[in-house]
């Protein structure tokens, strides 16, 4: 099964990385419109606390969405690797002037500032990257398990927040994923083409 998961990762990452710059730009525009529409459907006018990520390795570009969420006065948070165990994630406030650093994977994240960390239950939305997803809402990540470990305690409880939303290109959808016990399924996945809800 692990070999199957590795093969799916390799195959989907190749497809994703072969998308043209124009395809990526159009996808980024559609993503921001779809997520803003999703927010509007909740009929709330309050400032939301939204964790998102900076795109890497052909992932759906989040930069346009982040700028629009800033314009709408929402609070944005980015994942940073935990300074002590290095296998879990914390979510830190991200603003236009936030000091940034590259983590061990070469992905930029805010420099640690404990006063800017948001506890998971205080987030309204957690927008997550993924390599592949299936028709049941199962998510396959890069294999590091950062999100699964971070969300494990919440997954064991009947939590209300944050709402977990996967972001992906439509080409990342497969019929069925091989699932492990630690995988955290998603109730919502947004692609440039549509919003899937389970």
UniProtKB/TrEMBL annotation:
Belongs to the 5-formyltetrahydrofolate cyclo-ligase family. It catalyses: (6S)-5-formyl-5,6,7,8-tetrahydrofolate + ATP = (6R)-5,10-methenyltetrahydrofolate + ADP + phosphate. It comes from Pseudoalteromonas fuliginea. InterPro entries: FTHF_cligase, FTHF_cligase-like_sf, NagB/RpiA_transferase-like. This is 5-formyltetrahydrofolate cyclo-ligase. Keywords: ATP-binding, Ligase, Magnesium, Metal-binding, Nucleotide-binding. Its cofactor is Mg(2+). Its EC number is 6.3.3.2. GO terms for molecular function: 5-formyltetrahydrofolate cyclo-ligase activity.
């Amino acid at each position: 099964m692990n070999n199957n998961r590795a093969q799916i990762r390799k195959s989907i990452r190749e497809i994703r990385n072969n998308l043209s710059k124009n395809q990526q730009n159009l996808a980024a525009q559609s993503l921001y419109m779809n997520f803003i529409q999703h927010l509007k459907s909740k009929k709330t006018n309050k400032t939301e606390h939204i964790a998102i990520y900076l795109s890497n390795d052909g992932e759906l570009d989040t930069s346009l969405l982040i700028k629009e969420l800033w314009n709408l006065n929402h609070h944005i948070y980015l994942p940073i690797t935990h300074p002590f165990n290095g296998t879990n994630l914390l979510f830190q406030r991200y603003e236009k002037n936030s000091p940034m650093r590259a983590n061990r994977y070469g992905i930029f994240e805010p420099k640690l500032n404990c006063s800017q960390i948001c506890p998971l239950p205080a987030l309204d939305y957690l927008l997550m990257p993924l390599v592949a997803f299936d028709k049941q809402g199962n998510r396959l990540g890069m294999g590091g398990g950062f999100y699964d470990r971070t969300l494990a305690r919440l997954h064991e409880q009947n939590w209300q927040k944050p709402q977990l939303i996967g972001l992906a290109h439509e080409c990342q959808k497969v019929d069925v994923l091989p699932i492990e016990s630690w995988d955290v399924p998603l109730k919502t996945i947004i692609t440039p083409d549509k919003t899937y809800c389970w």
